[in-house]
């Protein structure tokens, strides 16, 4: 067994191996968990695998090997896992070793967490550790801490999440363990928010120290505690700390909320707003003012914190205004470079400024520098003012571009709706308004003229806000008219059919060439020979049906209709 371990740790994979764990003795519960783990630790699991290798799975020792994959693309991760398994499964077979091999990438651990299989993550805390760069110690420490907290707070624990350098591939063996705990405070009435936060922090910190003693760990747990109310408000404001935690964090326990929010974030549904970006730029300016006050009072070594935070916050405001989620402060300079420097919008000078000041802040925090001279701080202060001023200018440019994108989108929607309107009403929207809504006609003419000037880039003669409001008004108006017309058409041409054989009800619509039967699964389309010529379940085909019957709809039953229905249904009843 030592030979296999040595082979792995001296192979081309040695820098990627984070830990090796062994299970020799396996009770029924552990055996079941190891079987479940196979779905994540293998490349592909065939239906017959558990039957074919029943003896090996139950009798052999199980080795769990965790590999680092932080720097790899999705395709490279699959190749890494496949090549590792291929090499060492062959070695195990050739040397007739009684080992069942599980290979987990960090991506697999994330997938286990996102599937809410937290009991499989707890498995990584109880095996015999053969080799560890710190990953199994993290799982032991967090597993015990999590249990201590849940035993006391029970249903009030919303989520317990691993965060920090451990989930970003930047941890070293000496790194401490960052975790976030979200506690439900929505029915707490006996304490103020401040009192509750202090009590929770004391409890969770005490349990962190207890967990460290229980597992004899050299690592320190650094818990961040959020109430559900506090977390929700921070998330609604696109707080970069919360967004980073949500994006990168690995839930080790969740009642369903954290994973749901994470999925919404990954799908782009939770994203920064212009309001959030504005709030961050204001916060940056306020931090700069605070630094100026401290400079006057010669509290000089605290100034570097305010200046660094002010610069990072202003940069994050610009990133958010671009529609992206800001990373943590360490990632912010690179994001600025990719978003703006590489596109020629921003000078690299400003990225270097931010990196330099943030490094000064971290050097002071970690004790590498005990004190900055007054002249150094004045130099940083000038850089911070210059940097934030440039971020404000950049934000104004982005705001103008965003405004144009919004208006471009509104114009596109408006023109698409006008086309749909004409298809349904057989008259142009402009002529309809002139005849039916004369009081709105002058405003519509002004809108059409503004759209023409906008497309010709004559922005200086257009009131952008007025153009936007007018577009929104007519978009809503056309949508309402279209929806009312559709309902009118559907009601006018609708027949009801009862299929007596299947005991089901359907809606029937007739055009000159087609019969549309609306079922629970979509719309079935038939010709008048009774042949089914299509089935649609996409909402856009409902529009096609309405368009067809608005032009060629039949409001009566004739022999052709009855003949077709007799071929489609064996026994039916039809009514208007």
From TrEMBL:
<dbReference type="Pfam" id="PF18765">
    <property type="entry name" value="Polbeta"/>
</dbReference>
<keyword id="KW-0175">Coiled coil</keyword>
<dbReference type="InterPro" id="IPR043519">
    <property type="entry name" value="NT_sf"/>
</dbReference>
<feature type="domain" description="Polymerase beta nucleotidyltransferase">
    <location>
        <begin position="149"/>
        <end position="225"/>
    </location>
</feature>
<protein>
    <recommendedName>
        <fullName>Polymerase beta nucleotidyltransferase domain-containing protein</fullName>
    </recommendedName>
</protein>
<dbReference type="InterPro" id="IPR041633">
    <property type="entry name" value="Polbeta"/>
</dbReference>
<feature type="coiled-coil region">
    <location>
        <begin position="274"/>
        <end position="305"/>
    </location>
</feature>
């Amino acid at each position: 067994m030592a030979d296999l371990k040595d082979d792995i740790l001296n192979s081309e994979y040695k820098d990627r191996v984070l830990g090796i764990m062994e299970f020799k003795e396996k009770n029924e519960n552990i055996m079941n968990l190891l079987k479940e783990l196979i779905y994540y630790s293998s490349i592909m699991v065939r239906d017959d695998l558990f039957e074919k290798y029943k003896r090996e799975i139950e009798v052999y020792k199980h080795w769990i090997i965790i590999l680092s994959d932080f720097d790899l693309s999705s395709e490279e991760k699959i190749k890494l896992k496949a090549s590792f398994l291929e090499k060492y499964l062959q070695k195990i077979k050739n040397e007739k070793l009684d080992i069942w091999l599980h290979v987990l990438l960090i991506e697999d651990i994330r997938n286990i967490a996102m599937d809410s299989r937290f009991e499989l993550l707890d498995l990584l805390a109880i095996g015999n550790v053969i080799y560890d760069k710190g990953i199994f110690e993290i799982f032991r420490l967090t597993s015990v801490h999590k249990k201590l907290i849940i035993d006391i707070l029970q249903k009030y624990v919303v989520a317990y999440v691993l965060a920090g350098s451990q989930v970003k591939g930047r941890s070293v063996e000496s790194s401490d363990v960052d975790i976030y705990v979200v506690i439900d405070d929505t029915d707490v009435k006996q304490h103020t928010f401040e009192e509750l936060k202090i009590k929770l922090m004391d409890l969770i910190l005490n349990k962190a120290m207890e967990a460290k003693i229980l597992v004899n760990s050299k690592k320190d747990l650094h818990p961040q505690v959020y109430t559900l109310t506090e977390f929700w408000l921070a998330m609604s404001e696109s707080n970069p700390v919360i967004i980073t935690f949500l994006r990168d964090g690995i839930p080790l326990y969740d009642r369903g909320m954290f994973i749901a929010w994470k999925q919404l974030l990954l799908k782009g549904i939770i994203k920064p707003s212009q309001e959030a970006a504005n709030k961050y730029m204001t916060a940056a300016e306020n931090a700069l003012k605070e630094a100026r006050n401290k400079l006057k009072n010669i509290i000089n070594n605290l100034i570097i914190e305010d200046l660094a935070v002010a610069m990072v916050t202003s940069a994050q405001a610009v990133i958010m205004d671009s529609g992206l989620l800001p990373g943590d402060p360490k990632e912010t300079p690179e994001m600025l470079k990719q978003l703006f420097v590489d596109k020629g919008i921003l000078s690299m000078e400003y990225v270097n400024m931010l990196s330099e000041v943030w490094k000064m802040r971290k050097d002071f925090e970690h004790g590498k520098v005990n004190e900055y001279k007054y002249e150094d701080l004045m130099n940083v202060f000038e850089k911070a003012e210059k940097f934030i001023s440039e971020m404000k200018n950049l934000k104004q440019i982005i705001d103008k571009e965003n405004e144009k994108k919004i208006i471009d989108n509104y114009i596109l929607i408006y023109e698409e709706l006008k086309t749909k309107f004409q298809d349904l009403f057989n008259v142009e929207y402009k002529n309809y308004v002139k005849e039916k809504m004369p009081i709105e006609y002058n405003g519509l003419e002004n809108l059409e003229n503004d759209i023409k000037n906008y497309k010709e880039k004559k922005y200086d003669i257009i009131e952008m806000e007025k153009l936007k409001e007018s577009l929104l008004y007519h978009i809503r108006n056309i949508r309402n008219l279209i929806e009312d017309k559709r309902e009118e058409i559907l009601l006018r041409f609708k027949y009801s059919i009862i299929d007596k054989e299947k005991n089901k009800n359907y809606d029937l619509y007739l055009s000159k060439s087609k019969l549309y039967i609306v079922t629970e699964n979509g719309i079935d389309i038939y010709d008048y020979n009774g042949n089914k010529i299509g089935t649609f379940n996409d909402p856009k085909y409902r529009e096609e049906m309405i368009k067809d019957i608005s032009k060629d709809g039949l409001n009566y039953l004739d022999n052709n209709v009855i003949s077709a229905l007799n071929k489609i249904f064996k026994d039916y009843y039809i009514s208007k």
